[in-house]
Amino acid sequence: MSRFIRSAIGAVAALSCLVVIAAPVAVADSIREVSSEVCQNCHKEIYQQWKGSMHANSTALSDPIHGTFYKQVAGDPLQEGLKTKSGAYPVCLQCHVPNAALDKATKIDAKVSYKEGVNCVACHTIKAFNGINAPGGKLRLGMASYELSDSLQGPAGFSRGLQQLTAGNDMFGGAAADDSSKPNPHIGEAVTLDGKEIPSLPLEGNAGVMKSNAACMGCHDKRNNAHGVPLCATGNEYMVSKSDVTCQYCHMPMVGNSADHSMGGGHDGGMLKRSIVFTLDAKTDNGKVLVNATLKNQQPHALPTGAPFRNIVFRLTAYDASGNVLWQNAPEHPAKDDPQAYFAYLLSDDAGKNAMPPTATQLGADTRLRPHEQRVLGYEIPAEGVVLVRGEVHYNLLWKVLADKFQHLPEDLRSPRTIAVAEVRL
Ligand code: HEC
Ligand code: HEC
Ligand code: HEC
Ligand code: HEC
Ligand code: HEC
Questions:
Q1: 28-41 residue pLDDT tens
Q2: Residue 168 has what DSSP assignment?
Q3: Would you tell me which CATH number, out of the four given (3.60.130.10, 2.60.40.2360, 1.10.150.670, 2.40.10.10), belongs to the domain 269-425?
């Protein structure tokens, strides 16, 4: 910790007009270097939520799926001066290792603040969002789209002007009063906590950014590969939906008076269960079981959204009285057996064949559920002996071809997750 701290006489006065007496204080050398471990001292719950999130695990060293692609596209994450095949700085780091991107560094373990991926300071220094479309038609992605501050940015800030005015002759300007039991390093002075010295971490209120999509869109709007093919476009999908509900409403719900930082998505079983309404109707008619399966996307973005290899598979099975399978919609994979049951975003090459994200030259079929779309899938099953039909909705982080190929990945990243089930007894 101590390496973040330097003594500075009177630096507080420059940092905050609220402080009237200049005293020797510890100031963080650069806000960019401040580790999330420092924040943990006081924001324990938020730290725990963040630590379990993909933001804290976004680098090639901690996310095995990203790491696999990064090594293919860019190379060794522990090498300095890494360049892509076209001689460019790896754009991936702009979003996956934001603090390294700001230093144009590529050795991800060189600093704690790099290894931490999208850490507290990466988000909490966003002063303004300039959009991802740079003049001239190019995209500026991740940190390149943001204007950053040397001060932390918070959703509310500490509005102490009135307190100061009414404090009259109080030589501390009212700054000593605080309704929190924790010492507050955000109002211009270093503090001591359990014998530890915490540097001054000035913070200003910035509701306009922190409480709007601007805080997310630099990294979550859209991204193209080298051939201009859109690989993910959560922001674009959201724009089409014309929703006013911010990302924070769902991804940072208020829990116990504080915004939850778990920010779950495709890796989070709870979020996935919430994402869909799945209902099943079935009736027997003229020797057939007629089934309607209804799938409704609850989000103002696609389902699934994000990385192109996310996909959903719908499985419908008919059973006899002993639980034996009599009929299945897709004995192998619906991409082959039942295309309507496959919700995916496919990429292709010049010949129109399926292609991987780095090499795709055009979009393939996009059969995902559109924002708030409800889709009904109809089936006719031979009724003989059928007593039960069961539908299951499976979410996959990876296309099947990738899940089969990347045997080095942990099993839970390669296997489907059941996110909804419904049955009808006939
Ligand atoms: C020594 C304790 C301490 C440390 C360390 C600390 N904070 Fe805080 N922080 C506080 C207190 C006290 C508050 C005000 C009450 C509350 O929200 O808990 C606060 C509030 C905040 C807020 C909310 C401000 C708003 O606008 O509503 C943010 C954001 C924040 N801190 C970020 C950070 C970050 C990022 C770090 C690490 C770089 C950090 N804090 C380190 C004590 C600390
Ligand atoms: C991906 C971006 C992101 C990361 C990473 C992040 N935050 Fe936040 N944080 C936000 C946003 C956005 C808000 C405002 C949410 C709102 O009020 O709508 C926020 C709010 C807060 C608040 C105020 C909570 C409240 O509701 O009163 C604190 C404190 C805070 N963050 C601390 C931290 C700490 C500590 C870390 C690291 C352990 C961290 N944040 C990591 C984006 C982030
Ligand atoms: C500095 C870039 C950056 C910012 C700003 C940012 N994110 Fe992220 N976010 C990422 C990266 C990179 C990942 C993916 C990490 C991985 O899977 O390797 C991610 C992952 C996620 C995921 C989880 C995806 C999954 O696979 O489970 C959600 C949800 C998410 N972010 C929401 C948000 C929200 C909401 C905000 C704004 C409050 C935000 N992010 C701000 C970079 C960012
Ligand atoms: C109505 C609630 C809701 C809103 C609003 C919302 N999301 Fe989501 N989001 C979800 C749910 C539920 C999931 C999980 C299912 C899925 O992938 O669509 C999810 C998934 C994600 C993922 C995971 C993608 C992946 O690859 O795993 C990202 C990233 C994401 N959202 C970003 C955003 C951003 C950015 C915004 C704001 C523009 C936003 N979301 C708005 C509910 C919401
Ligand atoms: C504009 C920001 C941005 C850039 C640039 C970017 N990514 Fe990502 N990446 C994300 C976000 C956000 C997610 C997680 C949510 C989603 O799927 O959209 C993600 C997810 C991923 C995933 C899925 C990770 C998982 O856990 O399943 C892989 C793989 C990936 N990115 C590889 C790369 C590679 C390789 C590069 C560079 C060639 C790159 N990304 C560049 C923002 C970015």
A1: 569 999 999 999 99
A2: T
A3: 2.60.40.2360
CA of 217 to the centre of ligand 3 (A): 10
Ligand nearest to the CA of 51: 2
Residue 360: what are its φ and ψ, rounded to 5°? -60, 140
pLDDT tens digits, one per residue of 295-342: 999 999 999 999 999 999 999 999 999 999 999 999 999 999 999 999
- Among 209, 216, 251, which residue has the most ligand 4 atoms within 8 Å of its CB, making it the best to mutate? 251
Testing ligand 1's pocket by substitution, the residue of 27, 35, 186 carrying the most ligand atoms inside 8 A of its CB is 186
Query: Domain limits of the chain?
Result: 269-425
At a CB cut-off of 8 Å and minimum separation 6, what does 421 contact? Answer: 278, 390, 391, 392, 393
Pocket of ligand 1 (CB under 6 A): 34, 38-39, 41-43, 120-121, 124, 152, 154-157, 180, 182-186, 191, 193, 198, 201, 203, 205
Sign of CA dihedral 151, 155, 158, 162: positive
